[in-house]
Each structure stands twice: as structure tokens, then as C-alpha cells.
Amino acid sequence: MRILTRTDELAAFCQEAAARPYVTVDTEFLRERTYYAKLCLVQLAYPGGEDGDAVLVDPLSDDLSLAPLYDLFRDPGVVKVFHAARQDLEIFCVEGDVIPTPLFDTQIAAMVCGFGDQVGYETLVRKIARQQLDKSSRFTDWSRRPLSKAQQTYALADVTHLRVIYEHLAAELDRSGRASWVEEELGALLDPATYRQDPAEAWRRVKTRTTSAKFIAGVIELARFREEYAQTRNVPRNRVFKDDALIELASTKPASLDELGRSRLLLREARRGDIAQGILSAIATARDIPPEDVPRPRQGGDRAQANPALADLLRVLLKASCEKAGVAQKLVSSAAELDDIAAGKRNLPALTGWRREVFGGDALKLCEGKIALSVKGQNVVTVGV
Description:
The protein is α/β, with parallel strands linked by helices. The protein is 48% helix and 11% strand.
């Protein structure tokens, strides 16, 4: 087991990897006490079988720069293979301003190949690689040095078994002709905008039941301040104040430190200093926003206009269509999207691209009364009307 702690060692490994068709990648990081993830370890492996084809890279070493790895990530001749890549890609996008391409995500590929919704790495190791993972080091402090042998073994397993999984899934996609489906799904992961946290849009993550303009204006400005504060000081947003406190403040609209101190949900640290002043400033800004300038929360669709019977039929159709195609339901459509279709919305992902082939086309025919659902043996089938 090798741990690379110098830039020249990493450069030599990446030079070897650049001659291979793919490299598997994983990371270990900490995020409990920071806004941005703290990268603690990078695991890399390429196909081969010789000594040195799998290594651990220590980004905490003072003698190591990740520049050679970022160059490998930009190499168009080497596929970069991850499992559930989003958080890993966010780290590299933020720290190195790079998104690995070409990219392959085995979780997405497994969902396309019928392994279920958001299938975990451990499941694929068991079903495809026919191995068992040692989970004893799953919850560990990856920032502490030196790494134990158990930690090293656990970390390397995340990329060595991934080689077998990738080759199996890639062959299955070639056989089924569904490689383009995975490419379509990777679009969002390859878009740098996916990893930008815009403070102006932070309010959309806050779940609210009230839609009055004055309340929403408060939510917008409080969420904006919280996000900017968390980013600037690199602390989790919930360490500034939590969503329930934000909603309370948007409702009560305190105008002074004395009124702010009466909050039931605000942490003591947020009732004074920079956070308290930021809260009062955000509420003052919200008061001055004309109601007509306050954006409306995005609604999942007008549920009042949705035909509940049609929505139920669409759920049955989705299940039957996905079972027939051998693809995970969640990858095709969410429950909210089915309600949107039943309410008459048509500009939806489930009705475009490969999803239309699997489900969307029949969903539209069902809505238009051109097909019906029937039972044939143990299966639900569509019949013309």
C-alpha cells in the first residue's frame, strides 16, 4: 500500500495512469464543522494488476500539490470513474476549478442497468465484484495522521473493486445500447453551476408553508445573509442559525436587539455580534422590498388541478414501465413529477430524452386516453383504446 505525499510521486503515478483507458477515483473528506468540504484523502487506481496500480494520495501533506491529478482529470483519453460522484466533484470544482472529463458514475450506470434506486457501492461490490467490504473504518477521522492499516485498506477498497464494477457496467451498457442514457444523466454533474451555492438562491432550500410576500421576502434576505456569512467564515450554515429559527425570524420580524433576544429558537451566539446585526439588517432590507418584486416559491405543480385518479394510474404505469425496461424508477420520474403530468404540465424531464422512450411516451398517451392499463398474468400492460 503506497501513500503519496510528494508532488513528484503523484506526477509519476498520473503519468502511468494517463496511458490507461480509465482511472477509478474516490475521496475521503470532513464537512461537519465547515461550509466547504476538507479534502483529507484521494484514492486512485488504474487497470493492470501490477504493484502500484492503486495508491492513496495525501492532500494534507505540505510537500504535495494536486496539480498533476487535475491535469489527469482534464485528459480526454482517460475515463474518470467515480461512484456517486457529486460530492467528490464539488470538492474538485471548488478546490481546483476542474471537473473530471470524460466521466463515468457507477451509481447512475447501475440505476440504468436495473440495480435499483441510488444503489450503494457496498451492494455493487457484493453483487458484481463478489466481495465483502470491511466497514469498520467508515466513520473515522480522515484528517488524523498517520492513517492506520485498517483505514488504508478500507480506503483502497473504494477504488480497487470499482474497476471490476466499472468494466461490468460499461459492458452491460454497450450490450443494451444504453450508454447514451448515462451520458444524458451526467450533464448536471458536468455543469459547474451544479456546485455553485448562490446566496441569492439559498432561500429555495428552506421549506415553508406560508407564501405571503412579506414573509417570503424575509426568508430570502435571511437565507442570503446566512449563506454569505457561512461561506465567508467557512462554517456550516446551520451553525449560523437553523431553518426553524429563520422561519421564526421571517414571521416575527424583530427590529432591535431586544426584540431579537426574545426569539425562542435562535442560538445564544446569534443574538449578539455580527450575526445579530446581520439578521436585523436582512429583516430591514426585506421590509423595503415591494410585494410585487418578491419572487414566488417554486411549486411542484398545481395539485388542485391534478386528476388524482390519473396520477395513480401514472404511478402504476411508471412501475410497470421501469420493471420492463430494467431501470430504477427514481431515475425516470419523481412522485411530484407524476402529479405535474396529471395536472397537464408537459415541459418535464420524464417526457423527454430516453425517459420518453421508457415511460414518457406512454404517459402522454395515457393522459390523452389513447391507451389503457390492463393485467396480463403477473404483469401490467398497456392496451390501445
